[in-house]
Amino acid sequence: MTIAVDFDGTIVTHEYPAIGKPIPFAIDSLKRLQQEDxxxxxxxxxxxxxxxxxxxxxxxxxxxDFYAVNSNYPEDVPDGAVGARKxxxxxxxxxxxxxxxxxxxxxxxxxxxxxxxxxxxxxIVPESKKKSNIFTRLLYGD
Length: 142
Description:
This protein is α/β, with parallel strands linked by helices.
């Protein structure tokens, strides 16, 4: 499976243009998905130029290298169109999605098992996540 992963707010906290603090288990979960399950990971970020290179280097220094960056294939060369990146990924992991960013343990479990969020054992869902947005409140109750 091809998985596009955002950087700011997903792998690290939002501190743009600086690199924020690591989000717990983000890098480790992505490395496991890549190494154990053989998923192709694409770094999908609004960062460009030197700021993008800083994000790539940050991940590389922690043992995470991406199949491609802001493109479908490593050999794709951006045409200079800012914000015009359309990826053909099977899954997008982004903190700005409709339900917010689940805990990385939940993300890993969902992808690894191929199951929906509702199938995640309730015991691994932190209490803060159960009440964090409308979708988890509907799923787990108020």
